[in-house]
Write a structure and sequence with these properties.
It is built from 13 helices and 18 strands. By secondary structure, the chain is α/β, with parallel strands linked by helices. α11 packs across α12. Helix content is 35%, strand content 23%. 53% of the residues are buried. It has a 15-stranded mixed beta sheet, with helices on both faces.
Length: 421
Amino acid sequence: MTIKLGCIADDFTGATDLASNLVRAGMRAVQAIGVPDGAPPDDADTVVVALKSRTIPAADAVAQSLDALRWLRAHGAEQIYFKYCSTFDSTPAGNIGPVAEALMQALGCPFTIATPAFPDNRRTVFKGHLFVGDVLLNESGMQHHPLTPMTDPNLVRVLQAQCRGRVGLIDHRTVAKGAPAIHERMAELQQAGVSIAIVDALSNDDLVRLGKALAGLPLVTGGSGVAIGLPQNWGMARKRSAEALPAAHGRRAIVSGSCSAATHRQVAAFIAAGGAARALDPLKLDDAVDTALAWAAPRLADGPVLVYSTADAAQVKAVQGRLGAAHAGEMVEAALSRIARGLVDLGARQLLVAGGETSGACVQALAIKQLRIGPHIDPGVPWCHATSAAAPDGLHVALKSGNFGTDDFFMKAFAMLDRPH
């Protein structure tokens, strides 16, 4: 069986975010961790290849993305989707622009669109400017991101700095008129020499209208929001069977490495509700893994345990000042991934991981190669199911982007698995 939509995501939580939206819209989705070795499952409508390429050197991100593209095309993908973060995480060097242009060249695609809009998570684009809730991107906290600080909300300007070709805009007035008007504007821009157009989107209705206009376009780029408008092009609509997972079992654990404002609130809410939690000190990691696991072992039977390095911006800056931003992040990710593996060895079979880089490190530590995507907990964050050498009897895992989820996300996620589906 060949797949209909082939997806390339630049981090692991972004991949589950995209796959969740495709499942909600009726596609049976599988997430592969890295480029797969074999063929996709027979019942998959879409495969999302999850890379850890968001913040690596642009040339490496391009090479990995082209490897994923070759596998997807070899298995019949009719359209390719390059997925990045809904906060457009990038720098003037990339990686969004370089990867998009490399995919365009490989596909012989002279024009495509770009939009990180995801209204369900309060990411909207208006006149080319990205809003997070009611504030511009550069006022949302993303201006303090340790690796990709976003100080300019004008996406045309941000993407143009990364691209060789010209970047234009399809504004909200055009989108509101529907697919024919969007098609007309795309043709105008292409004739004017524009190769990538930022697209405004203020609501899911905008994304559905945009989705219809993208039928047949070889390459689509965006956050996960555009995904809700694509399955309709193959005659698909939401069905519960697309999100069915095996019954959950085993102990419950949370590993959190994200320092986003949303995750900071979620950690605080979990602790305030009486949850068992242990913080990691990035400056004292020598015996942190063994100590954390010794602390967790007797507590797992009583309910979820949380091990976290989540901290506010001032604390993160202080640690980076001592260790350097990249080194500090790598050390914490390594420690948390070993803790995640240790928690699974202790019987955790319901694992929630917060943070994109942390999720990538944990999935690799657990030797997970493939995830079946299930129902979403909050927009962009589904429960998934996997088997691996670490959990041959099956593991439910949720990979949460740092900025996603309500304050009570941790408690809500586990309560969801208690309900019959």
